[in-house]
């Protein structure tokens, strides 16, 4: 389809070249008088004088058919033309009227001409684009008195534009041609003072390079006519549905409205004779004359125009023309009124600024139809949306849930739609503020995008398939390839954004081989350690209710005998650092999978996780699970593991844990014996362990364990570890405290409700005796030496602002629970052993009391510390009915 | 998609973006796309004397490939969750 309309009189091509009315007259004559011989000089345009170019046959479509060869065209927006427009003096209006090319041929005329070949056709109207395109002189003259014309607000211009784009032209009833139509054109086709409002056709469209959709439905004048309701409809659906359905022959009719002024004018002038409307015609005739002479073709006489117009006019529905006239007249009146008001300089300035803005907006507006935009939006969206947000957009999804406090809010698609609306600036919903509709539209876009995204992998597979077939030598058609590639540039496959190219390619390690080599090492270790003496075997056997397999006992014993505090050696005995780390990762993966299943409501199978924990793994000297706890991430995953494990499994896990406590890295680094100078990182690690793992144990013990289970755990601890060593570490001491205090609580509790059976009590006494024996004569060793305390406080003081003091509460708690479960003779022994510490604490508290009495900022701190010391000490003393106060120990009343 | 997913959570937060040409821009992250192109609002350049042409710029679109660093506030990141997300990503790739 031609850019400017098309020529149905193609058969007369050579003649057309002449352009102008003269030619038309000729043709009329030809048609009327049958054939006259052609005069070569009349038809030859002198093309031969120029170098031949390719695709010349399109020239008429592009430039019009009556243009002098060699003209300079301005296909840009015509900044050159626009700039003078603003400054053009009102006086130039007379000249301006010259600009409009009058002889544009309408689609209607063309179509009609095609249907009725006999009817005379205004060939002069053929394919004549806007003069200003190639005739700078005309273009400059064209914009008349723009500042005085009615100036549209930004919104109005936008609205008009939208209308232009959204309305399939045929929708517009011609009679709705709105008055302000021409005024909106930035170049100021606004009616000049003389008030000839009837615009030359094609004016309303910004003359230069205004991007017009090829279908021509963007002929702007119709645009405004658009009834407002039209907007509410989603434009894209609209355009899509309407356009294809439109029968082709209807298309030409729409532009006819604005483009047929030649036909209208005579009619218009008749009824409105008293109005100045008549004047423009004269002007225009004159200008067309001058224009024609400018372009070098002989101009027709004004009379000719009227004559020519008449036949065309006949073809147009009378009604339509009349309807058109009305608004035009109204407009004229309005315009004139407006023009009379003088503009102040400020107003002028504002107008100029506004015009500059409008200019900017118009520059590229309309380049894409709403449908185009939607198409691209969909493509962009399809790169982002995903069917499976929890897998592919895990961080974002979960983060948002966490942020909102566990409430699952809007759906993923809704969020995306909203976000996209924000970007596109359509969130306000356009003119009618129908934000909800805008959101709905975007949501439907997202829906579509999801389907596109779903198709994507399919297409990729097809491609691969096609490639394979080609490789196999089969003649595979390339049709399977993405047909849309190239339309929007290269459409990146999902690969680019979803799986970016990697800087580092790590070949998948051969896991099996690694494992095998580790196994070999391990067996070697096991054999070597099997020979180790088994000193505590008899004790173990005496406690018959503990069922440890012979094999594991051997293993544990031996590893204990080895008992090295070196972490790396412990690690190597449980499979090596690499192995342990890979185990942790496996555990993480299992947990993540279980959590995903839990979220999606699927059944969770912990079997794999349990296997990954290697709790019952007899292959290693030190259980890999214990080594896992050497790493922070191994500790941190524990609460999540506990969410999934069965009670039996938890118990088994804890049994293993307590059995191999001496191998636990955290015990080693928290013991002043093995690690007299803990680093800051180690202290942090201890802290993490305490807050994470100890918490789980406490909650497990207090919520779901019974007395026997606790006894079993304690027994595991006592049997397999050096209690005296463990008690030198803060964590170890805490663990023991947790166990015995829990047992004591249950005992007290059951004293009232259901009695413990006597075998249970006797077993407990037995275990307690054993524990006490292990600790006896070493109880004082639970207190770390002063140097260690100094070291730890120094380190932790570095991290915290306030001066810190070593908190010995955990020690007194331990002693308290030990004393609580013990009999009187046990308590006596304990007091005997820690007497020095008790009196040392009292002395320290006394010193602090004197410091607290004095003035100074330290007083409050001293007072606090003194109180804390008493409080801690009394934890222990209260158990035995004693209390320490003001440096003295008295009986608790 | 992990980084995309991550950066999406930073929308509406203030970040500092250092470009590969050493310009540092502080601004509110407005949006991010799958190429990690960034849109910043209310930007300010940390070295205005060196890049005076950015003084009058209020918002900016940054092509993702030109970004060297994005500086974040520590509390904008849930590190544990990020670790999980990373593991999940690695898992899904292995499948």
From TrEMBL, chain A:
Listed Basic and acidic residues bias regions: 338-350, 453-465
Entry-linked Pfam families: PAT1
Main location per the UniProt record: cytoplasm
Ranges of compositional bias, category Low complexity: 9-37, 236-295, 314-334, 466-481
Intracellular or extracellular location(s): Cytoplasm, P-body; Nucleus
GO cellular component: nucleus; P-body
InterPro entries reported for this sequence: Pat1-like, PAT1_dom
Molecular function in Gene Ontology: RNA binding
Family stated for the protein in its record: Belongs to the PAT1 family.
Name of the protein in its database record: Pat1 protein
Organism annotation: Maudiozyma humilis (Sour dough yeast)
From TrEMBL, chain B:
Species assigned in the record: Maudiozyma humilis
Functional note: Component of LSm protein complexes, which are involved in RNA processing and may function in a chaperone-like manner.
This protein's name: LSM complex subunit LSm2
Pfam families named among the record's database cross-references: LSM
Organism domain of life: Eukaryota
The keyword RNA-binding is assigned to this record: yes
GO cellular component term of the entry, any: U6 snRNP
GO BP terms: mRNA splicing, via spliceosome
UniProt keyword list: mRNA processing, mRNA splicing, Nucleus, Ribonucleoprotein, RNA-binding, Spliceosome
Limits of the Sm domain: 2-76
Assigned protein family: Belongs to the snRNP Sm proteins family.
Chief subcellular location: nucleus
Cellular location(s): Nucleus
Keyword RNA-binding belongs to the record: yes
UniProt GO molecular function: RNA binding
CDD domains: LSm2 (cd01725)
InterPro entries cross-referenced by the UniProt entry: LSM_dom_sf, Sm, Sm_dom_euk/arc, U6_snRNA_Lsm2
Gene3D superfamilies linked to this entry: 2.30.30.100
């Amino acid at each position: 389809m031609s850019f400017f309309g098309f020529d149905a009189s193609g058969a007369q091509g050579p003649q057309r070249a002449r352009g102008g009315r003269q030619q038309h007259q000729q043709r009329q004559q030809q048609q009327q008088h049958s054939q006259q011989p052609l005069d070569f000089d009349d038809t030859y345009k002198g093309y031969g004088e120029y170098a031949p170019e390719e695709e010349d046959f399109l020239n008429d479509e592009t430039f019009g058919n009556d243009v002098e060869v060699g003209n300079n065209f301005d296909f840009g927006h015509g900044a050159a033309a626009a700039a003078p427009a603003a400054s053009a003096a009102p006086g130039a209006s007379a000249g301006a009227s010259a600009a409009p090319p009058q002889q544009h041929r309408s689609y209607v005329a063309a179509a009609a001409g095609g249907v009725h070949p006999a009817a005379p056709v205004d060939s002069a109207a053929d394919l004549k684009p806007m003069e200003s395109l190639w005739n700078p002189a005309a273009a400059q003259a064209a914009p008349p008195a723009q500042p005085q014309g009615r100036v549209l607000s930004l919104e109005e211009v936008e609205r008009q534009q939208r209308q232009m784009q959204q309305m399939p032209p045929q929708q517009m009833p011609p009679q709705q041609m709105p008055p302000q139509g021409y005024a909106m054109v930035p170049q100021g086709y606004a009616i000049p003072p003389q008030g000839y409002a009837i615009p030359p056709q094609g004016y309303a469209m910004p003359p230069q390079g205004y991007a017009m959709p090829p279908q021509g439905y963007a002929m702007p004048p119709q645009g405004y006519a658009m009834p407002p309701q039209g907007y509410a409809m989603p434009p894209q659906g609209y355009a899509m549905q309407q356009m294809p359905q439109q029968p082709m022959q209807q298309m030409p009719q729409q532009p006819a409205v604005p483009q047929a002024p030649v036909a209208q004018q005579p009619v218009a002038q008749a009824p409105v004779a008293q109005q100045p409307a008549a004047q423009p015609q004269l002007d225009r005739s004159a200008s067309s004359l001058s224009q024609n002479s400018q372009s070098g073709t002989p101009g027709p006489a004004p009379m000719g125009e009227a004559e020519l117009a008449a036949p065309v006019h006949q073809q147009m529905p009378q009604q339509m023309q009349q309807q058109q006239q009305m608004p035009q007249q109204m407009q004229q009146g309005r315009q004139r009124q407006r023009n009379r008001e003088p503009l102040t300089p400020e107003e002028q300035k504002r107008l100029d600024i506004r015009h500059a803005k409008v200019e900017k907006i118009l520059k590229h507006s309309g380049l894409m139809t709403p449908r185009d935009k939607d198409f691209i939006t969909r493509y962009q969206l399809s790169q982002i949306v995903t069917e499976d947000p929890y897998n592919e957009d895990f961080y974002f999804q979960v983060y948002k849930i966490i942020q909102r406090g566990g409430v699952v809010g809007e759906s993923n698609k809704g969020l995306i739609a909203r976000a996209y609306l924000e970007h596109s600036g359509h969130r306000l919903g356009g003119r009618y503020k129908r934000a909800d509709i805008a959101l709905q539209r975007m949501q439907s876009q997202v829906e579509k995008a999801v389907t596109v995204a779903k198709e994507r992998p399919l297409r990729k597979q097809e491609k691969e398939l096609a490639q394979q077939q080609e490789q196999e030598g089969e003649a595979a058609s390339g049709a399977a390839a993405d047909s849309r590639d190239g339309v929007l540039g290269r459409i990146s496959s999902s690969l680019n954004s979803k799986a970016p190219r990697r800087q580092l390619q790590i070949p998948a390690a051969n896991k099996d081989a690694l494992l095998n080599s580790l196994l070999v090492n391990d067996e070697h270790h096991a054999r070597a350690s099997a020979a180790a003496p088994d000193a505590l075997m008899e004790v173990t056997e005496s406690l018959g209710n503990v069922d440890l397999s012979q094999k594991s006992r051997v293993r544990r014993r031996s590893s204990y005998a080895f008992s090295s505090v070196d972490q790396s050696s412990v690690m190597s005995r449980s499979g090596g650092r690499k192995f342990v780390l890979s185990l942790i990762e496996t555990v993480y993966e299992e947990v993540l999978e279980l959590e995903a299943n839990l979220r999606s409501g699927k059944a969770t199978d912990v079997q794999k996780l349990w296997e990954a924990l290697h709790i019952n793994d007899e292959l290693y000297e030190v259980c890999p699970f214990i080594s896992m706890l050497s790493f922070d991430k191994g500790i941190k995953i524990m609460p999540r593991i506990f969410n999934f494990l069965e009670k039996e499994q938890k118990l088994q896990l804890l049994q293993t844990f307590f059995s191999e406590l001496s191998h636990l890295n955290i015990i080693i680094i928290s013991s002043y014996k093995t690690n007299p100078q803990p680093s800051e990182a180690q202290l942090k690690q201890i802290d993490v362990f305490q807050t994470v793992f100890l918490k789980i144990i406490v909650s497990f013990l207090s919520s779901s364990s019974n007395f026997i289970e606790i006894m079993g755990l304690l027994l595991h601890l006592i049997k397999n570890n050096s209690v005296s060593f463990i008690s030198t570490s803060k964590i170890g001491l805490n663990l023991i405290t947790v166990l015995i205090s829990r047992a004591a609580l249950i005992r007290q509790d059951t004293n009232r409700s259901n009695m413990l059976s006597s075998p249970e009590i006797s077993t407990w006494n037995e275990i307690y005796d054993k524990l006490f024996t292990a600790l006896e004569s070493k109880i004082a060793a639970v207190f770390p030496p002063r140097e260690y305390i100094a070291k730890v406080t120094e380190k932790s003081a570095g991290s915290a602002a306030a001066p810190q003091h070593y908190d010995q509460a955990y020690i007194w708690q331990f002693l308290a629970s030990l004393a609580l479960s013990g009999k009187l003779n046990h308590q006596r022994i304990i007091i005997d052993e820690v007497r020095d510490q008790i009196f040392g604490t009292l002395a320290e508290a006394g010193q602090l009391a004197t410091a607290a009495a004095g003035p100074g900022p330290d007083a409050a701190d001293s007072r606090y510390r003194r109180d804390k010391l008493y409080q801690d000490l009394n934890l222990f003393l209260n158990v035995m009915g004693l209390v320490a106060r003001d440096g003295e120990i008295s009986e608790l009343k | 998609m992990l980084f995309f997913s991550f950066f999406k959570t930073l929308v509406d937060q203030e970040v500092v973006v250092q470009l590969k040409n050493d310009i540092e821009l502080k601004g509110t992250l407005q949006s991010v796309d799958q190429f990690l192109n960034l849109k910043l609002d209310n930007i300010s350049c940390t070295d205005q004397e060196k890049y005076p042409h950015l003084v009058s710029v209020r918002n900016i679109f940054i092509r993702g490939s030109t970004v060297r660093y994005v500086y974040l506030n520590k509390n904008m990141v849930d590190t544990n969750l990020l670790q999980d997300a990373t593991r999940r990503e690695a898992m899904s790739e292995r499948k």
